[in-house]
Amino acid sequence: MTVLTGPRAVLTAALAAVMFLASCGGGSGPTVGRLEKPRTLNAADYRATGIPRSFGDTKPHEWDSIRPDRYPIHGIDAARYQGDINFFAARNAGINFAWLKATEGGDYLDPGFPRNAPRARAAGVAVGAYHFYYFCRTAREQARWFIENVPRVPGDLPPVLDMEWNHQSRTCKRRPDAATVRDDIRTFSSIVAQHYGTAPVVYTTPDFYEHNQLGLLRGTEFWLRSVAGHPSERYPQERWTFWQYTGTGVVPGIDGIVDINAFAGDPVSWRAWLSVRRQK
User: What are the chain's domains?
Assistant: First the structure.
Protein backbone atom coordinates (compact mmCIF):
# COMPACT_ATOMS: atom_id res chain seq x y z
CA MET A 1 0.00 0.00 0.00
CA THR A 2 3.01 2.29 0.45
CA VAL A 3 3.98 4.64 -2.40
CA LEU A 4 7.53 6.03 -2.54
CA THR A 5 8.73 9.17 -4.33
CA GLY A 6 12.02 10.85 -5.14
CA PRO A 7 15.46 9.51 -6.19
CA ARG A 8 15.68 7.11 -3.26
CA ALA A 9 12.37 5.62 -4.27
CA VAL A 10 13.91 4.35 -7.53
CA LEU A 11 16.42 2.22 -5.66
CA THR A 12 13.87 1.14 -3.08
CA ALA A 13 11.37 0.23 -5.78
CA ALA A 14 13.98 -1.83 -7.59
CA LEU A 15 14.83 -3.74 -4.43
CA ALA A 16 11.15 -4.16 -3.65
CA ALA A 17 10.48 -5.53 -7.12
CA VAL A 18 13.19 -8.14 -6.66
CA MET A 19 11.72 -9.19 -3.32
CA PHE A 20 8.20 -9.18 -4.74
CA LEU A 21 9.14 -11.47 -7.60
CA ALA A 22 10.95 -13.80 -5.27
CA SER A 23 7.95 -13.92 -2.98
CA CYS A 24 5.66 -15.07 -5.76
CA GLY A 25 7.80 -17.90 -7.02
CA GLY A 26 7.24 -21.56 -6.57
CA GLY A 27 10.04 -22.23 -4.08
CA SER A 28 9.76 -24.91 -1.46
CA GLY A 29 10.09 -22.60 1.52
CA PRO A 30 8.86 -19.18 2.56
CA THR A 31 10.50 -16.01 1.32
CA VAL A 32 11.17 -13.40 3.98
CA GLY A 33 11.73 -9.78 2.96
CA ARG A 34 14.49 -7.54 4.24
CA LEU A 35 13.66 -4.76 6.67
CA GLU A 36 14.44 -1.35 5.17
CA LYS A 37 16.12 1.60 6.87
CA PRO A 38 14.49 4.67 5.31
CA ARG A 39 15.71 8.24 5.62
CA THR A 40 14.29 10.16 8.60
CA LEU A 41 11.85 12.93 7.72
CA ASN A 42 10.48 15.66 9.98
CA ALA A 43 6.71 16.10 9.86
CA ALA A 44 7.08 19.81 10.65
CA ASP A 45 8.91 20.27 7.35
CA TYR A 46 5.99 18.89 5.37
CA ARG A 47 2.93 20.59 6.82
CA ALA A 48 0.02 20.41 4.41
CA THR A 49 -3.47 21.90 4.30
CA GLY A 50 -6.09 19.33 5.16
CA ILE A 51 -3.64 16.97 6.88
CA PRO A 52 -3.74 16.77 10.71
CA ARG A 53 -1.21 19.24 12.08
CA SER A 54 0.95 16.65 13.81
CA PHE A 55 1.53 14.85 10.49
CA GLY A 56 3.00 15.93 7.16
CA ASP A 57 2.76 15.02 3.49
CA THR A 58 5.62 15.07 0.99
CA LYS A 59 3.23 15.22 -1.98
CA PRO A 60 0.04 16.79 -0.66
CA HIS A 61 -3.25 16.97 -2.48
CA GLU A 62 -5.07 20.31 -2.61
CA TRP A 63 -8.16 19.32 -0.67
CA ASP A 64 -11.16 21.26 -1.92
CA SER A 65 -13.83 18.95 -0.54
CA ILE A 66 -14.05 17.02 2.73
CA ARG A 67 -10.58 17.17 4.26
CA PRO A 68 -8.83 14.37 6.17
CA ASP A 69 -8.34 16.57 9.24
CA ARG A 70 -12.12 16.68 9.66
CA TYR A 71 -11.82 13.18 11.13
CA PRO A 72 -10.43 12.76 14.67
CA ILE A 73 -9.18 9.13 14.49
CA HIS A 74 -6.14 8.40 12.35
CA GLY A 75 -3.81 5.49 11.77
CA ILE A 76 -1.17 4.04 9.48
CA ASP A 77 -0.51 0.98 7.39
CA ALA A 78 3.10 -0.09 6.98
CA ALA A 79 5.41 -2.81 5.73
CA ARG A 80 9.13 -3.51 5.76
CA TYR A 81 9.77 -0.21 3.95
CA GLN A 82 9.16 1.76 7.15
CA GLY A 83 11.79 -0.16 9.14
CA ASP A 84 11.52 -0.19 12.93
CA ILE A 85 8.69 2.07 14.10
CA ASN A 86 8.67 4.09 17.32
CA PHE A 87 5.01 3.64 18.19
CA PHE A 88 5.23 5.69 21.37
CA ALA A 89 6.15 8.74 19.28
CA ALA A 90 3.51 7.88 16.69
CA ARG A 91 0.86 7.45 19.40
CA ASN A 92 1.75 10.82 20.95
CA ALA A 93 1.31 12.39 17.50
CA GLY A 94 -2.21 11.01 17.18
CA ILE A 95 -1.84 7.56 15.63
CA ASN A 96 -4.58 5.32 17.03
CA PHE A 97 -4.29 2.23 14.85
CA ALA A 98 -1.88 0.41 12.56
CA TRP A 99 -2.23 -2.38 10.06
CA LEU A 100 1.08 -4.06 9.23
CA LYS A 101 1.78 -6.24 6.23
CA ALA A 102 2.29 -9.82 7.37
CA THR A 103 1.88 -12.09 4.36
CA GLU A 104 1.57 -12.12 0.59
CA GLY A 105 0.47 -14.88 -1.74
CA GLY A 106 1.24 -18.31 -0.38
CA ASP A 107 4.93 -18.13 0.52
CA TYR A 108 5.98 -14.59 1.50
CA LEU A 109 6.46 -13.17 5.00
CA ASP A 110 7.05 -9.49 5.73
CA PRO A 111 9.67 -8.99 8.46
CA GLY A 112 8.06 -5.74 9.60
CA PHE A 113 5.10 -7.48 11.23
CA PRO A 114 6.91 -9.52 13.92
CA ARG A 115 9.20 -6.54 14.63
CA ASN A 116 6.57 -3.82 14.85
CA ALA A 117 3.35 -5.47 16.06
CA PRO A 118 4.66 -5.95 19.65
CA ARG A 119 5.86 -2.34 19.67
CA ALA A 120 2.41 -1.10 18.69
CA ARG A 121 0.73 -3.14 21.42
CA ALA A 122 3.20 -1.85 24.02
CA ALA A 123 2.44 1.74 23.02
CA GLY A 124 -1.32 1.28 23.16
CA VAL A 125 -1.82 1.46 19.39
CA ALA A 126 -4.47 -0.94 18.09
CA VAL A 127 -2.66 -3.21 15.64
CA GLY A 128 -3.59 -5.82 13.07
CA ALA A 129 -2.14 -7.71 10.11
CA TYR A 130 -2.87 -7.48 6.41
CA HIS A 131 -2.49 -9.96 3.57
CA PHE A 132 -1.61 -8.86 0.03
CA TYR A 133 -3.57 -11.01 -2.41
CA TYR A 134 -1.76 -12.73 -5.32
CA PHE A 135 -3.88 -13.87 -8.24
CA CYS A 136 -1.85 -16.95 -9.14
CA ARG A 137 -2.61 -18.67 -5.80
CA THR A 138 -6.00 -19.89 -4.65
CA ALA A 139 -7.98 -18.04 -2.01
CA ARG A 140 -7.96 -21.11 0.24
CA GLU A 141 -4.18 -21.47 0.00
CA GLN A 142 -3.65 -17.82 0.85
CA ALA A 143 -6.07 -17.93 3.77
CA ARG A 144 -4.20 -20.93 5.19
CA TRP A 145 -0.87 -19.16 4.72
CA PHE A 146 -2.15 -16.12 6.62
CA ILE A 147 -3.52 -18.24 9.46
CA GLU A 148 -0.27 -20.23 9.73
CA ASN A 149 1.81 -17.09 10.13
CA VAL A 150 -0.34 -14.54 11.96
CA PRO A 151 -1.12 -15.52 15.56
CA ARG A 152 -4.57 -14.89 16.95
CA VAL A 153 -4.10 -12.23 19.64
CA PRO A 154 -7.14 -11.13 21.67
CA GLY A 155 -7.51 -7.37 21.37
CA ASP A 156 -5.84 -7.07 17.97
CA LEU A 157 -7.64 -5.48 15.04
CA PRO A 158 -9.45 -7.70 12.55
CA PRO A 159 -7.33 -8.95 9.63
CA VAL A 160 -7.24 -7.03 6.37
CA LEU A 161 -7.41 -8.47 2.86
CA ASP A 162 -5.58 -6.15 0.46
CA MET A 163 -7.21 -6.52 -2.97
CA GLU A 164 -5.58 -4.67 -5.85
CA TRP A 165 -4.04 -5.71 -9.16
CA ASN A 166 -0.50 -7.13 -8.94
CA HIS A 167 0.90 -4.41 -11.22
CA GLN A 168 4.58 -5.14 -10.58
CA SER A 169 4.48 -8.91 -10.85
CA ARG A 170 6.36 -10.48 -13.75
CA THR A 171 5.33 -13.96 -12.68
CA CYS A 172 1.56 -13.49 -12.55
CA LYS A 173 -0.33 -11.51 -15.18
CA ARG A 174 -3.62 -13.18 -14.35
CA ARG A 175 -6.66 -10.95 -13.95
CA PRO A 176 -9.70 -13.08 -13.15
CA ASP A 177 -13.17 -11.96 -14.13
CA ALA A 178 -15.14 -9.88 -11.64
CA ALA A 179 -17.35 -12.72 -10.40
CA THR A 180 -14.29 -14.85 -9.65
CA VAL A 181 -12.62 -12.00 -7.79
CA ARG A 182 -15.69 -11.53 -5.62
CA ASP A 183 -15.88 -15.26 -4.95
CA ASP A 184 -12.20 -15.27 -3.94
CA ILE A 185 -12.85 -12.45 -1.48
CA ARG A 186 -15.77 -14.35 0.01
CA THR A 187 -13.75 -17.57 0.31
CA PHE A 188 -10.71 -15.94 1.91
CA SER A 189 -12.88 -13.90 4.25
CA SER A 190 -14.97 -16.87 5.37
CA ILE A 191 -11.94 -19.02 6.24
CA VAL A 192 -10.10 -16.23 8.04
CA ALA A 193 -13.19 -15.05 9.93
CA GLN A 194 -13.81 -18.53 11.27
CA HIS A 195 -10.27 -18.69 12.68
CA TYR A 196 -9.98 -15.17 14.15
CA GLY A 197 -13.58 -14.76 15.24
CA THR A 198 -13.99 -11.57 13.23
CA ALA A 199 -14.31 -10.96 9.49
CA PRO A 200 -11.53 -9.25 7.53
CA VAL A 201 -11.77 -5.65 6.41
CA VAL A 202 -11.25 -5.42 2.63
CA TYR A 203 -8.83 -2.77 1.37
CA THR A 204 -9.07 -1.75 -2.27
CA THR A 205 -8.36 0.94 -4.86
CA PRO A 206 -10.75 2.87 -7.13
CA ASP A 207 -9.84 1.00 -10.32
CA PHE A 208 -10.03 -2.43 -8.71
CA TYR A 209 -13.30 -1.63 -6.99
CA GLU A 210 -14.92 -0.43 -10.19
CA HIS A 211 -13.58 -3.18 -12.45
CA ASN A 212 -14.71 -5.95 -10.13
CA GLN A 213 -17.99 -4.39 -9.00
CA LEU A 214 -17.11 -4.79 -5.35
CA GLY A 215 -20.22 -2.87 -4.38
CA LEU A 216 -22.03 -6.17 -4.88
CA LEU A 217 -20.24 -7.61 -1.83
CA ARG A 218 -22.97 -6.93 0.68
CA GLY A 219 -21.90 -7.21 4.30
CA THR A 220 -18.26 -6.47 3.49
CA GLU A 221 -16.53 -3.74 5.49
CA PHE A 222 -14.37 -1.55 3.27
CA TRP A 223 -11.14 0.36 3.67
CA LEU A 224 -10.89 2.59 0.60
CA ARG A 225 -7.89 4.27 -0.98
CA SER A 226 -8.67 7.76 -2.25
CA VAL A 227 -5.71 10.16 -2.27
CA ALA A 228 -7.20 12.78 -4.61
CA GLY A 229 -10.67 13.22 -3.19
CA HIS A 230 -13.04 12.07 -0.48
CA PRO A 231 -14.27 8.44 -0.83
CA SER A 232 -17.76 9.77 -1.57
CA GLU A 233 -16.32 11.19 -4.80
CA ARG A 234 -14.36 8.12 -5.91
CA TYR A 235 -16.78 5.45 -4.65
CA PRO A 236 -20.26 6.99 -5.02
CA GLN A 237 -22.83 5.58 -2.59
CA GLU A 238 -20.36 3.09 -1.10
CA ARG A 239 -20.14 2.61 2.65
CA TRP A 240 -16.69 2.67 4.22
CA THR A 241 -15.04 2.47 7.62
CA PHE A 242 -11.45 3.48 6.80
CA TRP A 243 -10.08 5.94 4.28
CA GLN A 244 -6.47 5.90 3.07
CA TYR A 245 -5.99 9.55 2.17
CA THR A 246 -2.27 9.69 1.41
CA GLY A 247 0.53 7.35 0.47
CA THR A 248 3.21 9.99 1.04
CA GLY A 249 2.58 10.90 4.68
CA VAL A 250 5.12 11.81 7.34
CA VAL A 251 4.44 10.75 10.93
CA PRO A 252 6.64 11.20 14.02
CA GLY A 253 8.28 7.93 15.01
CA ILE A 254 8.21 6.58 11.45
CA ASP A 255 11.16 7.02 9.11
CA GLY A 256 10.48 7.77 5.47
CA ILE A 257 6.98 8.13 4.10
CA VAL A 258 3.95 6.13 5.18
CA ASP A 259 0.29 5.65 4.29
CA ILE A 260 -2.08 7.54 6.60
CA ASN A 261 -5.72 6.65 7.12
CA ALA A 262 -8.81 8.01 8.82
CA PHE A 263 -11.62 6.20 10.64
CA ALA A 264 -15.10 7.22 9.52
CA GLY A 265 -16.44 8.20 12.95
CA ASP A 266 -15.75 10.07 16.18
CA PRO A 267 -13.95 8.73 19.29
CA VAL A 268 -17.17 7.27 20.71
CA SER A 269 -17.93 5.32 17.55
CA TRP A 270 -14.27 4.27 17.33
CA ARG A 271 -14.45 2.68 20.77
CA ALA A 272 -17.75 1.04 19.85
CA TRP A 273 -16.26 -0.33 16.62
CA LEU A 274 -13.27 -1.76 18.51
CA SER A 275 -15.50 -3.45 21.05
CA VAL A 276 -17.30 -5.32 18.27
CA ARG A 277 -14.49 -5.94 15.75
CA ARG A 278 -11.39 -6.71 17.81
CA GLN A 279 -10.23 -10.32 17.97
CA LYS A 280 -11.68 -12.09 20.99
Answer: 7-277 (3.20.20.80)
